[in-house]
């Protein structure tokens, strides 16, 4: 079907009800093709998508939406009792079709069906294309409740619903979260085959390498965010940014040198003027110069000195202004800085004994397998087991908070002996600085929630010696993801991590891999463990 060429935003201004500004006079054009929406957590990516989807109303400005809109949210919250066809929004058409087929139809049934006579066949074909054919492969399966699907399968089902509606504009917010490798490849293929305006917010580097345009949402010093467009994929975008940053660093070096030079010249000028003044005063005291002439010379010298000081002072001010402008060009990419407490587990120390998993020493275990294979179920069972050391579990849904309380208050709950000053100092390393630590958890973005969750488990008392993490890189921006890797690679306790993010798993260098893929025997693959480098081998 034909699609319009672009989605445009003009003079868009939006602030939250408490007055916190997000966008001010924002204008941007999202062209036909795939645009990757990138930026740090909290910069406003999901907020922009919600504005584009009309879930939020701007205080000023307009959005030009060509045709039908589809929007897939970051967190899919489906009623487990809903049948699949209801999620696909074809239940009323199916009911009308069945009435027509049984000969009990009314005129309204034909109106409901319209031209969608093959909607069931198209739905099954699309479900199969996205890898759900083994679960929803027949017409009867369209009646099954969605509660029987895993989180990743529910995401694919929700994507199927959007694609089935054939929208002119499709907005996707972190669509690869919770998807295994095979499911991600199917989603990539669906993205590649979409012909309209597609805007996808993602930290998935593989997905971002497939886009046509990068739209960077970046917070400015003013407190609001702007959007800057870059042609090409993520690698091309990074090349432009890296070149700009190198030029900015060179400009800063030159500007600093100029400031030092102008400051030295100002000091030298002041010294020379002081010498001249002392000499003139000495001559006057010794009456070598007539008083009238001495006074005239003194006034002239003072005027000249004032002008000279003003000239050099202006040069210093200009140099400092140039330095400030150059520093504004240098990105202030905030990064998570985690100093983990004493968490060392000694070799041979029993960490956890369980029917399915036995952990000894500082093992780093990767838990892999397709969606629905039981990774989360296994982690939950381990969370209830009797561990030999303090441990913490980070669930996939991050439902470990008191949503009505602040970030700092949630940390205080698990670190009762820490002072308020210490808690705030530690939270600053997780980018909750100043008043950010007083944010109510319910108001946090997806990435901010993950940072708060990491802080809650890592700053707990006593310090955890075993971490169990379920898809920890979901919603984490690319920079913070790397610093999570760095933090985990300094962690001297035991780790068991369920993840579909293969580059992330490779970076933390698991010593053992447990594969829950059906028919994958043995469960603990010695071959897999042998092929995976240890931390020492990967350094």
UniProtKB/TrEMBL annotation:
<feature type="region of interest" description="Disordered">
    <location>
        <begin position="516"/>
        <end position="539"/>
    </location>
</feature>
<feature type="domain" description="ABC transporter">
    <location>
        <begin position="7"/>
        <end position="247"/>
    </location>
</feature>
<feature type="domain" description="ABC transporter">
    <location>
        <begin position="330"/>
        <end position="538"/>
    </location>
</feature>
<dbReference type="InterPro" id="IPR027417">
    <property type="entry name" value="P-loop_NTPase"/>
</dbReference>
<keyword id="KW-0175">Coiled coil</keyword>
<protein>
    <submittedName>
        <fullName>Putative ABC transporter ATP-binding protein YheS</fullName>
    </submittedName>
</protein>
<keyword id="KW-0067">ATP-binding</keyword>
<dbReference type="InterPro" id="IPR003439">
    <property type="entry name" value="ABC_transporter-like_ATP-bd"/>
</dbReference>
<dbReference type="GO" id="GO:0016887">
    <property type="term" value="F:ATP hydrolysis activity"/>
</dbReference>
<dbReference type="InterPro" id="IPR050611">
    <property type="entry name" value="ABCF"/>
</dbReference>
<keyword id="KW-0677">Repeat</keyword>
<keyword id="KW-0547">Nucleotide-binding</keyword>
<feature type="region of interest" description="Disordered">
    <location>
        <begin position="293"/>
        <end position="315"/>
    </location>
</feature>
<feature type="coiled-coil region">
    <location>
        <begin position="245"/>
        <end position="272"/>
    </location>
</feature>
<dbReference type="Pfam" id="PF00005">
    <property type="entry name" value="ABC_tran"/>
</dbReference>
<dbReference type="InterPro" id="IPR003593">
    <property type="entry name" value="AAA+_ATPase"/>
</dbReference>
<dbReference type="GO" id="GO:0005524">
    <property type="term" value="F:ATP binding"/>
</dbReference>
């Amino acid at each position: 079907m034909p699609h319009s060429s672009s989605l445009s935003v003009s003079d868009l201004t939006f602030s939250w009800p408490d007055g916190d500004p997000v966008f001010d006079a924002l204008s941007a054009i999202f062209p036909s093709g795939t645009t990757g929406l990138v930026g740090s957590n909290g910069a406003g990516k999901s907020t922009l998508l919600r504005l584009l989807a009309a879930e939020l109303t701007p205080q000023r400005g307009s959005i030009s939406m060509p045709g039908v809109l589809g929007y897939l949210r970051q967190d899919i919250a489906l009623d487990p009792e809903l049948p699949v066809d209801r999620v696909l929004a074809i239940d009323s058409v199916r009911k009308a079709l069945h009435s027509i087929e049984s000969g009990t139809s009314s005129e309204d049934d034909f109106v409901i069906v319209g031209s969608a006579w093959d909607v069931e066949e198209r739905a099954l074909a699309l479900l199969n294309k996205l890898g759900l054919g083994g679960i929803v492969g027949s017409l009867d399966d369209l009646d099954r409740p969605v509660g029987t699907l895993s989180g990743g399968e529910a995401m694919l089902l929700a994507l199927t619903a959007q694609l089935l509606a054939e929208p002119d504009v499709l907005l996707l917010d972190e669509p690869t979260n919770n998807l295994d490798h095979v499911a991600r490849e199917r989603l990539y293929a669906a993205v590649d085959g979409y012909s309209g305006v597609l805007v996808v917010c993602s930290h998935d580097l593989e997905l971002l390498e497939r886009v046509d345009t990068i739209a960077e949402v970046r917070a400015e010093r003013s407190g609001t965010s702007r959007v800057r467009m870059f042609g090409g994929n993520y690698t091309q975008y990074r090349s432009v940014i890296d070149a700009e940053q190198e030029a900015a660093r060179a400009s800063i070096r030159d500007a600093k040198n100029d400031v030092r030079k102008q400051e030295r010249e100002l000091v030298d000028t002041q010294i020379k003027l002081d010498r001249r003044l002392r000499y003139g005063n000495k001559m006057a005291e010794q009456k070598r110069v007539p008083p009238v002439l001495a006074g005239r010379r003194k006034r002239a010298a003072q005027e000249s000195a004032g002008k000279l000081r003003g000239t050099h002072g202006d040069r210093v001010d200009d140099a400092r202004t140039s330095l400030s402008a150059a520093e504004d060009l240098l990105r202030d990419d905030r990064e998570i800085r985690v100093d983990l407490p004493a968490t060392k587990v000694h070799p041979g120390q029993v960490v956890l004994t369980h029917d399915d998993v036995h952990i000894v020493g500082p093992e780093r275990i990767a838990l892999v397998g397709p969606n629905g294979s039981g990774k989360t179920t296994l982690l939950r069972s381990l969370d209830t087991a009797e561990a030999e050391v303090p441990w913490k579990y980070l669930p996939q849904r991050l439902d470990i908070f008191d949503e009505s309380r602040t970030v700092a208050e949630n940390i205080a709950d698990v670190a009762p002996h820490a002072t308020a000053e210490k808690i705030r100092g530690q939270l600053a390393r997780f980018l909750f600085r100043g008043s950010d630590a007083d944010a109510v958890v319910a108001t946090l973005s997806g990435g901010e929630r993950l940072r708060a969750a990491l802080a809650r488990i890592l700053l707990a008392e006593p310090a955890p010696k075993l971490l169990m993490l379920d898809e920890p890189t979901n919603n984490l921006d690319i920079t913070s993801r790397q610093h999570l890797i760095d933090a985990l690679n300094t962690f001297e306790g035991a780790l068991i991590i369920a993840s579909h993010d293969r580059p992330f798993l490779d970076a933390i260098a698991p010593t053992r891999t447990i594969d829950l893929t059906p028919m994958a025997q043995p469960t603990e693959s010695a071959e897999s463990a042998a092929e995976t480098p240890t931390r020492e081998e990967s350094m």
